[in-house]
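Late entry, evening session. Most of the bench is empty. Finally got around to the prediction I had been postponing all week. Sequence below, unchanged from the version circulated by S.P.
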Amino acid sequence: MARLILILGLLLVGVNNANATWSIIIIDPKTKEIGIAGASCTFSVYGIGGIVPGKGAVVVQAMSNKQARNKGLQMVLADASPEEILNAIKDPSFDPEEQQYAVVCLNKIYQPQTYTGTNTTTEKGTVTSSGISIQGNTLSNKEMLNQILKVALKAQRKGLPVQEVLMLALEAGAAYGGDKRCGDRKASSAFLTVAKENDDPQHPFLNLIINQTDETSNAVKTLRKKFDHWKATN
């Protein structure tokens, strides 16, 4: 129970309702590292999902619902399958038609589960592969999801660590259009989180957050600078 409280406490640091644009969950079955990254044209996109170290991750975006996130994390902790988790958080009490869901678990690494509600903002969609789920709404174009996946798979084939794959995937999303509300800016907030198998949920291996600080900065580029600084000092 204490572990669950810590996980939910970490999750609730984020915003309650984030109109998230594009996000990525990646699980490495060899290292059991789990990562989430996302970007949006909102003040803060951090908090759209959570990681249960060594078990899995859940993203609930669009009109992000913290109760659905918490329910999903509880079920990840209990080793429920992605299918069971998705079915549970699609309960009408969570307003699933306003949400976009993604669930990836180590116990079913080959079966990411996603759902995009009918009332979420276009352009929208999801693409998945083994241990990877990419989802977006309010996109400049739907093709960017396929381009993000191509970049992520190429990075994995090169043997890059989860955090590098996530950073490249976020940059691919920005390069292929980003959030249509942001125009050439692409995104005003972004984050990148990676947890190792035995991490304390409140202190994951890597947790970089960029909230909107002005009206012009591209948050993905700002995150890259922060990421490169982290690499240089760790």
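Two things to note before I forget:
The chain has a mean pLDDT of 91.
The chain has one domain: 2-232.
Will write this up properly tomorrow.
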